[in-house]
Specification:
The protein is elongated. It has helices spanning 3-19, 47-62, 66-79, 84-99, 103-117, 124-139, 158-169, 176-189, 193-206, 213-227, 236-251, 257-286, 290-303, 308-322, 330-335, and strands at residues 24-27, 30-33, 145-146, 150-151. Among the domains are: 19-153, Alpha Horseshoe (Serine Threonine Protein Phosphatase 5, Tetratricopeptide repeat); 215-339, Tetratricopeptide repeat domain (Serine Threonine Protein Phosphatase 5, Tetratricopeptide repeat). The protein is 61% helix and 3% strand. The protein has a two-stranded antiparallel sheet. By secondary structure, it is mostly helical.
């Protein structure tokens, strides 16, 4: 058999397997096997019984006889363990549990079981949607009910782990980025800074084209700027915040947040420049070090040339050039001025001996001569 004859039967078999994948559909208030698919019910003679159980369970749900519906879906799941019908039963049982306020059973007894055994379930997208619904209800503060009737304590933060299941089981699905932004909003509302930042950073890195990316950049930029204690402290957070605002402008120039981003960058860069200016003033007024002061003042001007801090730095540079010594403070009058550091020229190595050069190395003797005395 040549290669052509080998490939075509294989492709035909794969196509046939895909076409014949079992799929149960609910149509005209009745369950049936979708046309052009084959049920995986074993033995095949049990198919009418399986469909009848599905119909009775769905009818009980429609009539709001939830306990009866759960019993029927339980029976179907047990009899069709590992089959497509079990996935149908678990998904619909989760829906009934949600209607009864039983969020934990819906999550752990139904949806988690589908994730474990039915990742190729034809309606897996619906499983993700139901999981997302559970997370939204928890995040909104809906009160769970034990046994479907006894009100229990709210647990909004548990929604974070349920959202995580949406992302883990469908990272490329339409709800992944939406789950992340809702995680960020919830964690922020509950004062969970680390979880908030983590969710926002994941949107930016994993879903850069998401419609929630501008919001993530805005929230993360504001978080980073709020973490800074001011111009007298480390400015790494300020610079990170400015970078997030710049990313927002570059990638989403038409977003309404872009205008705010430009204003925020000016504020942040002025604060970062003022940090250098404060260091320049410290070296000049407190440490009598004009070289270090000029270095920091120039850094302030370079960082934000059009800022108020840069204009102050320019004035300070003029003062340093105009006056050889800083103003005398009360402490200087009592204790004397702070010793000025030595200049670079004063630190130049000196000649150590006739046999040493300026850097302290032994001089090389001309060829055929000796440095020793005769």
């Amino acid at each position: 058999m040549n290669l052509k004859n080998k490939i075509f039967p294989l492709l035909f078999g794969l196509l046939l397997a895909t076409t014949c994948q079992a799929e149960f559909v609910f149509k005209n208030d009745r369950w049936q096997v979708k046309e052009n698919t084959t049920s995986d019910v074993t033995p095949a003679s049990d198919l009418p019984r399986v469909l009848e159980l599905m119909n009775r369970a769905s009818a009980a749900m429609a009539e709001e006889r939830y306990s009866r519906a759960i019993d029927l879906w339980d029976e179907l799941a047990e009899k069709q363990h590992g089959k497509e019908a079990e996935a149908v039963a678990l998904l619909n049982r989760a829906r009934v549990h949600i209607l009864r306020g039983q969020f934990e059973p819906a999550e752990k007894e139904d949806l988690d079981e589908i994730f474990k055994r039915h990742s190729n379930y034809v309606n897996f997208g619906e499983v993700i949607e139901v999981t997302f619904d559970v997370a939204n209800r928890l995040a909104a503060g809906e009160r769970p009910h034990l046994g479907g009737w006894m009100p229990w304590f709210k647990d909004r933060l548990h929604a974070l782990s349920v959202y995580e299941k949406v992302i883990k089981n469908a990272p490329n699905g339409p709800l992944a980025d939406k789950a992340l932004i809702r995680m960020a909003r919830l964690a922020n509302a509950e004062g969970r800074t680390e979880e908030t930042a983590n969710a926002l950073e994941r949107i930016i890195s994993d879903y850069p084209n998401s419609k929630f990316a501008p919001e993530a950049l805005e929230r993360l930029a504001k978080m980073r700027s709020e973490e800074s204690l001011g111009a007298d402290w480390d400015q790494a957070k300020m610079m990170a915040a400015a970078d997030h605002w710049r990313t927002l402008i570059n990638q989403f120039p038409n977003d309404p947040r872009a205008k705010e981003a430009r204003e925020q960058i000016k504020i942040l860069m002025d604060r970062a420049a003022r940090a250098r200016l404060n260091l320049a003033k410290f070296y000049w007024f407190k440490r009598n070090n004009p070289e270090a002061a000029k270095l920091m003042a120039n850094a302030s001007r370079s960082l934000a040339p059009n800022s108020e801090a840069a204009r102050e730095a320019e004035k300070l540079l003029i003062d340093i050039q105009s006056f050889p010594n800083p103003p005398v403070s009360l402490a200087d009058r009592i204790l004397g001025p702070y010793p000025r550091p030595s200049s670079n020229t004063e630190l130049k190595p000196k000649v150590v001996g006739d046999e040493m050069d300026e850097l302290g190395f032994r001089k090389e003797s001309p060829a055929g001569t000796s440095t020793k005395n005769p």
